[in-house]
Amino acid sequence: MDDKSYGDVMVLFGTPRYFMRFIKQKGLNVYSTYKNVPFLMRIIRKFFFILKLPESIWYEKWKYKLGEVKVLILFFTQDDKIVHYINTVNPNIRLILWYWNPVFRVFNPDKVSDLLCEKWSFDENDALKFGMRYNTQFFLDNITLPKNDLVYDVLFVGKDKGRAPMINDLEHTMSEMNIDTYFYIVNDKALAGNHRPFVPYEEYLTLLSKSKSILDIVQPGQNGLTLRPMESLFFRKKLITNDPTIKTREFYKPNNIFIIGEDNVDGLKQFLATPFEDIPADIVKHYDIDSWLKRFFE
Questions:
Q1: pLDDT in tens, 263-287
Q2: How many CB atoms lie within 10 A of CB 120?
Q3: Of the candidates 217, 211, 258, 260, which has an alpha carbon nearest to the alpha carbon of residue 236?
Q4: CA dihedral in degrees (30, 36, 97, 46; nearest 10)?
Q5: How far apart are CA 286 and CA 12, in angstroms?
Q6: What is the pLDDT of residues 33-48, one digit of tens each?
Q7: Which of 7, 83, 193, 230 is a good FRET partner for 281, with 20 to 30 A between their CA atoms?
Q8: Calpha distance 161→105 (Å, rounded)
Q9: Start-to-end CA span in the chain (Å)
Q10: Which residues fall within 8 angstroms of residue 173, CB to CB, at 6 or more apart?
Q11: Rounded Cα–Cα distance for residues 26 and 22 (Å)
Q12: What is the arithmetic mean of pLDDT over 101-105?
């Protein structure tokens, strides 16, 4: 597959919306799955979903273009209604369900008929367990960081997902080692008087530009790479992670990646003080969205 055939491919994306303009720059037809509507309309939409009313009135303009594409890559979320809708409108589309999150956080692929779609996952274990095809995590080489002076040693911005106790312990440990951190944990659900707003990805990139490294805490049972190793790879930022399987990745270098629970915590400050070690360009390119797309057609 080359760029000339991108006109036959549509991508339905969820969040973060910030990514969409960079995907469009790659020549892809990309849409949000649902319309971006005001807060009150989102409440009404939520009732539509709860009452199992037709959802298609909330779909973006992609629903009018299903007859123009041959391949549709759907970033899959919580149910299979959209799968049935797409097949009803155009049963000849090659529909790829892309699991960008572990199965336990989204929808069980066993509940989706293999006759309707192909199922692909970023997580090797999920791919084996549920009989899905595997493709790597991806990033976009046309996303760049703003130029800023370094302020922090370690950055974490993300949802709790049960990780807060571990992250808070790490923050305490790093503070005792005089390591400067910026940790921002968003609650999984809005709690009265204790809710922190999401940080838009563009703002996150500004914070990242000011940090030497990224903290990556994977959830138990997850085997696929998160976006944090991708950001480390593409932006040349050091990575601190609790994922021991990262040693099997072709981009792994001990100078760039510190593994919690395996590497000696007493060496963390020295790890942060040394320069990022270069990664061969072909390895970085392997994780760019262009290479990711081509693997669906190999």
A1: 999 999 999 999 999 999 999 999 9
A2: 21
A3: 211
A4: -170
A5: 22
A6: 999 889 899 899 888 8
A7: 7
A8: 10
A9: 8
A10: 265
A11: 7
A12: 89
